[in-house]
Design goal:
By secondary structure, this protein is of the alpha/beta class. Helix content is 40%, strand content 22%. Mean pLDDT is 93; it is low at 1-32. The structure holds P-hydroxybenzoic acid (PHB).
């Protein structure tokens, strides 16, 4: 009988029975024994096409790497990955989430990249109760008013990545700034977080420019920036859009006269394609390639070996998603029916991440260091810690 045609309760009994029938198989990570344990279904909703495609691939591959490094199982059970291309399209997000949660009846759900997709996904899993790990999207609401016991995030809130930049830019003497970003939740919330700390300390955003997502037609706005002559520009773009924006900014001749700042997504995973145009850009982010810790070094080598690509912040978030799921499933020895215990274990986890050790807030969002980075010789060099152990304010989250 196909698993998806039976009720959740029946299915739990079936899986427990299968695990029991496999006996020691659940506990002994030998290939022969594992073959007998029922598979854990892991739903993955990420973009594999469009401007965020590279992000989706790095998150997926690093998550699988983390699980494979531990024998390819979650709590002793092999994993079936059920992947859906989100296309970073919020209008398809509810249908795509339902495909996995209701149609495939996945045991766990991970993803997405896009904040708009995350909001639709969070609305559904709050009702369905599926244990969900958000592996990129920073939509503040996910760990604020929409927070839930079954929703975790291994990445960041949009607020976290930009709040530390206000005082930093003022310290550098930039008081009049133009902001430019895509016009959707991530861009709006990142600029909002920057504005919060920038304006409170005496800075002024003279113009807030918004570009429809995922458009990359920047020319008219770059001309306007030149005429406004701000002290600096603050921005959020990512993936293919970030490559184009940084190159266009330099080509418009603005790079030397008006310094460019942003959340670190502007220069993460993008530097080889941006080349000299990215030199000198200063950003804030919860990761940098060159972080000098043994976990990061080992991870970067393993990711390169597995994919032939360089790791970036997205890969780190995918890797930590795999680790968090493993942590929860190891605590219950693979019993997906023991949801409360899985969630309790995940909530209490300390992850020894390539970004540095981090824990989860009451809203189940990382409490993490935000690094100050500057692009030097094609590398995001860490030039300081912009904010130590930063927690999102979690306004409106009622989880105690
Ligand atoms: C988001 O939509 O939340 C988002 C997308 C790409 C990023 C960061 C945030 O790099």
């Amino acid at each position: 009988m196909p698993i998806k045609s039976i009720s959740a309760a029946t299915r739990r009994r079936f899986l427990k029975g299968a695990a029991a029938a496999a006996g020691a198989a659940v506990f002994i990570p030998a290939p022969f024994a594992i073959g007998q344990a029922a598979k854990v279904k892991l739903g993955v909703l990420l973009p594999y096409s469009g401007t965020y495609a590279a992000l989706g691939h790095n998150i997926t591959d690093a998550m699988i790497l983390a699980i494979n490094e531990a024998g390819g199982t979650l709590g002793g059970r092999p994993v079936e990955y059920v992947k859906v291309d989100s296309e970073a399209d919020p209008s398809k997000a509810a249908a795509n989430t339902n495909k996995l949660v209701v149609g495939e009846k996945v045991d766990f759900l991970t993803g997405p990249v896009h904040s708009g997709v995350a909001m639709a996904m969070a609305k559904i899993v709050r009702e369905e109760g599926t244990i969900t790990v958000v592996s990129n999207a920073g939509a503040d609401a996910v760990t604020r008013e929409m927070c839930a016991a079954n929703i975790f995030r291994t990445s960041f809130s949009n607020w976290q990545t930009c709040f530390p930049m206000g005082p930093e830019m003022l310290k550098r003497g930039h008081k009049r700034v133009v902001s430019i970003t895509w016009n959707y939740a991530a861009g709006q919330e990142m600029i909002g977080a920057f504005r919060e700390s920038f304006a409170a300390n005496g800075g002024t955003i003279v113009k807030e420019m918004l570009v429809p997502f995922p458009n990359v037609e920047f020319q008219a706005l770059l001309t306007e920036i030149a005429s406004l002559k701000p002290d600096a520009v603050f921005s959020f773009f990512a993936g293919g859009g970030a490559v184009k924006f940084v190159k266009d900014y330099a080509a418009a001749g603005l790079k030397t006269s008006i310094p460019l700042f942003g959340s670190g997504f502007l220069t993460d995973g993008t530097l080889p394609a941006q080349g000299a145009a990215a030199e000198g850009i200063v950003t804030t982010l919860h990761y940098a390639d060159s972080l000098d810790n043994p976990v990061n070094k080992k991870f970067r080598e393993a990711f390169k070996k597995a994919t032939n690509r360089d790791a970036d912040v997205y890969a780190v978030q995918g890797y930590d998603t795999g680790k968090l799921l493993m942590h929860g499933m190891t605590a219950v020895k693979g019993d997906t029916g023991a949801k409360k215990e899985i969630m309790a274990a995940m909530r209490g986890a300390t992850l020894d991440s390539p970004r540095g050790k981090f824990t989860f807030s009451k809203a189940q969002n990382p409490v993490q260091d935000i690094y100050l980075r500057e692009v030097k010789n094609g590398d995001n060099v860490v030039i300081g810690v912009a904010h130590k152990a930063l927690a999102d304010p979690a306004r409106g989250c009622t989880l105690a």
